[in-house]
Specification:
Elements: H1 3-21, E1 32-35, H2 55-59, E2 67-70, E3 73-76, E4 79-80, E5 83-93, E6 99-103, E7 109-110, E8 115-121, E9 124-127, E10 137-140, E11 148-154, E12 157-159, E13 167-170, E14 174-179, E15 182-184, E16 193-196, E17 199-204, E18 207-209, E19 227-230, E20 242-248, E21 251-252, E22 264-266, E23 276-282, E24 285-288, E25 298-301, E26 304-309, E27 312-315, E28 324-327, E29 336-341, E30 344-346, E31 363-364, E32 373-376, E33 379-381, E34 404-405, E35 421-422, E36 427-428, H3 435-446, E37 488-495, E38 498-505, E39 514-520, E40 530-534, E41 539-543, E42 551-559, E43 562-571, E44 583-585
Amino acid sequence: MNLKHLFNILSAALLVLASVAHIPSVSAQGNVYYVATDGVDAPERGTASQPWRTITYALDRVPDGSTILVRPGDYVGRVRLRGNFTQGVVVRSESPYRARLRNTADKVITTYDGCRGVTLEGFDIAHGGSGAVALVVHVDGGGVEGRVTNLTLYNNVIHDSYNNDILKINNGATHITVRGNMFYNQAGSDEHIDVNSVKDIVIEDNVFFNDFAGSGRTNSNNTSAYVVVKDSNGTDDWVLGSERVTIRRNVFLNWEGSTGYGFVQIGEDGTANYEAVNVLVENNLMLGNSSNTMRSPIGVMGSRDVTFRHNTVVGNLPSYAFAMRLYRYGDNQPNQNIRFYNNIWSDPTGTMGAYGSTANDFSDTPPGQTTSFTLDRNLYWNGGAAIPYDSSELVNYTDDARRIVADPLLGSQAGLVIPRWNPTTGQFADGSTTIRQAFERLVTRYGAPAAGSPAIGAADPTQSPADDILGQPRSAPDIGAFEFQPSLQLRGAPANRAIFLRWTVNTTLPVTSTWRISYSGPPGDQLSPITGIISPTRAYTLTGLTNYTWYTVTLNAMVGSTPFLTDTVRVMPTDIFVYLPIVLKEY
């Protein structure tokens, strides 16, 4: 066989292989399947051009590791999250918040058939209106260990229950994560999230508020906590007392509930067993912007080993107790080992814990109802007025031997906009287009201390998490939920006869601003100062410098000839890199 003939045979074979590779198939889409309101639930469908009709049908048919994209539209009826997926399956609204899950005749979402390894992402989920059956979303573990586990609710707007809780997680479910969602408007004496007889639950990066008028509903001031952790059913399932529950990096605001509850309630039903054990509440921002009176932002009842650290409670916050309520009820055992570290409690109006014409009040903590507590290295501020003290209460701010009493310099809540979702405009009421954007706006406007705040660098690092409410790392940790970030941070790295400069900006620069770099030390190729550097610039290299000589480099943001931001580093250029280079930061 000559080479020409062999070449022709190989070419033909390659053409055949290429044509086979382009035969359309579902698997060729990389395990991506589709659901649409005009789809049909039939086995051969699920493609972009021939979608299925329901999420439940899709979950029954996709392989492990798949993604199910749900197109915009209204999906009315119950969604049954089910299936056993080791790698995990993501069910995602193709356009965030544009796929709307609704039901009035039944719950909107359930896990009654067992569920492992499912993520539900990007939906608008609510009851269809009045007359609905109880619960919007029900994550029910079925009383059996491992029956419902490794389930994530992410980036959903979950709202407007007309009967009971918005989300109930109960009956032995485990490893459930509720991340980056927005919750508002439960019904009656119930919650946004009821965490009930479960283990290993994480509630993080969410926004919680109520705004009944915005949904055309009447606020009866009869709703309960935004999040409750408890155990209502005793030994009916394999869990006795909810355990290992983490509530972190959330924003709570706009209280419209009853005077018996607050944002977070640990224990509620007065049972003889500890209702919750090993609960961590950290890095949360609790805004007292509402004129409605609550009992206290944090309540603990019949529970043990509960830690509150690095939370910021700020605002007028009309309440029976501004900081905490520790108590027992019914058959409860006394609370045990309740700890408060590195928190901010700040009422700039000077009415800490007051409502109506009542006197100020720091805590509701009857003696004998809590056997052990710790109050350490917190910051307290009552607008310059005295922090409330009551000798009849178990806990007073004076129990904190390392307390700081000073203004944390947090932003005013005047003009705060409740960021509810508006499907007509495709935006949240504050102008945000994502939940995360709304979350970050609330944090940076109302939870970030200004430069010079006494909270900065003042926390006990042995009781600090690795990050803050925005996920920013903590080094010399600040008290409260937010770790202060300087408006300008300059960094310098040494090189041979050069210094590489990079900087970050944590503020908005005027359009007309420029940068100026000046340095002290032997002159280089660029003479000091270097001016007129355009404002978008974030890096610059100084060259022609003298090795083994310290240079002090200062960066200024300028408007005209006036500097308004400044940072400085000290760097030694070198041509030897056997050892780690030395860069000194000046403060």
